[in-house]
Amino acid sequence: MSLVVTKARIFQPPRSAMQSGRANTQEWALEFTPPGRSRLDPLTGWIGSAETTRQVRLHFPTREAAIAYAEAQGIAHEVEEPTRTRPIKPKVYADNFRTNRPDNWTH
Questions:
Q1: What is the distance between the alpha carbons of residues 68 and 76, in angstroms, rounded to a whole number?
Q2: Which of 37, 48, 55, 84 has the lowest tally of Cβ within 10 angstroms?
Q3: Architecture of the domain whose range is 8-97
Q4: Does an H or E element contain 71, and which?
């Protein structure tokens, strides 16, 4: 079964605003690009479309698995490489009470 979709993008979703660690940040997602413009519903004034593929997001453990799925289903795709990630600097609570702190205690 192949989907009639113009294109899909494969990317690594960013962390949510409530997430500080690296858990669940290594997976890849496949998301379909909308084939046409959205339209304004005359009754409610909401923006919508009859195309439901924009609501679909598939998750894969690796980039290669997402690409293999897209090629097996005949979906044209483009891969977005992840941006540079900042290293997480470990913090220790005991450093707040060190006597040789580089910063002044502001409390």
A1: 11
A2: 84
A3: 2-Layer Sandwich (3.30)
A4: helix 63-73
